[in-house]
Structures are given as structure tokens and as C-alpha cells.
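Hi R.,

Quick one: here's the HTH-type transcriptional regulator MgrA sequence you asked about.
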Amino acid sequence: MDSEATPQAREAGDLPEAARRGPISHAIFRVARLHRMVAGQLLREVGLHPAQELVMMQLWDRGRMRQTDLAGHLGTDAATMTRTIQRLEKAGFVRRARSASDKRSVLVEPTAASQALRRQVEDLWARLEDHVAGDLTGAERSETLAVLERLETNLVTHVSDGEPSSLPGASDA
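And here's the predicted structure, written out as C-alpha cells:
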């Protein structure tokens, strides 16, 4: 069997021996990998790569912001954010400028061209949600979200250099 074949759902006993003491972690890894693959396929339809839509979502909601704050909201490092912003700028979706009050800071804002992209991203994000949740009932969707939030909370306590408010998905409210 070709190891590059299309991924298939695994059965419980199909875990590698070394992963049997961490079946939830192994499942999270598999689901995250597949989620990123499907998201990537959908995002290609609008000319984006995974995680670029998350940057745009922040900018559409918050407007102009410092690049370092944007990286903090998404829980990413400065180098990754710089590359992402450069690619989005090249595509015409964001504009960068030095801050007038702090020349060390770079401000990033969405362009008018990105506003047309917003509706497309919202639509494909809804499609992704449908792919993920499939035939789950409303109650199962709520329960799944609650469990995922608990897992995130559990993991936040083990992140050595990040504050909970700066991790992906963390609430700012």
C-alpha cells in the first residue's frame, strides 16, 4: 500500500505501538493534519494559504494594528508573521506602514481589495465547518466544542513562553 495514499479513518486498535499511551494526542494530530489539508484545498480557491485567512479575519474585525500585536493574537512568531504579511501584501490584501508614533512598529491594515475576499473566506470557512462537523447534531457540535475548549485550556498551562490571551483561539474579551 502506498504511504502517500489518501488518508483514511483509523480504527482504535490501529495506533502505532508508541502512540498507544497517547491516543487522544494521536487523534488530535491526525485530525489537525487533515483539517489543514482540507482548509488548504478550500483556501486555494480564493488564492490563500492556510493561516492567511486567520490574519485577514483579525484585520477585518480589528482594523489597522501593529504587526507584533497581530502575531500575539494568532500565537505565532514574528518571522512567520512577517512572511505571511509580505505574501498578503504582494497579493494586494494588506498594506504595511511604519507607525508615526513608534518608528520601530509596523502597522498592518486590510486593503479595499481584501473586502471582496472577506465574503469568500466566510463562505469557505462555513464549508470547512460543514466538512468537519458532518452529520453531528447540534448537541454533539456543542459538546465537541466544549471538549476542544477544555483540551485547549489543559494545554495552555503547559506553554512556557505564551500567555493564554496570546494563544490561537484565546478570547480577548
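The first helix runs from residue 23 to 44.

Cheers,
M.
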